[in-house]
Each structure stands twice: as structure tokens, then as C-alpha cells.
Write a structure and sequence with these properties.
The protein has 1 helix and no strands.
């Protein structure tokens, strides 16, 4: 997908990366709490 307008694609990719970071951090946090409560 070669497009001439790269600015919207860059913002779109950065937004996706931002949400992936937030979701992965929240999932890791809840998983860490679950493991913490299971093993302690």
C-alpha cells in the first residue's frame, strides 16, 4: 500500500501503537496481580 500522503498513516500507526502500549501494560498489570495473588 504505497500512498503519497504519509502524515495520516504516521498518525494512525502512532495511535495504534499508543493503544497497544496501554492495553498491553494494563493486561500485564492485571496478570501480574493475578499471579501475585495466586502464588502469595
Amino acid at each position: 500500500m504505497a500512498t503519497t500522503t504519509t502524515a495520516p498513516n504516521v498518525t494512525y500507526i502512532s495511535m495504534i501503537g499508543f493503544w497497544i502500549m496501554i492495553l498491553s501494560s494494563s493486561v500485564c498489570g492485571t496478570f501480574g496481580k493475578l499471579v501475585y495473588y495466586l502464588f502469595i
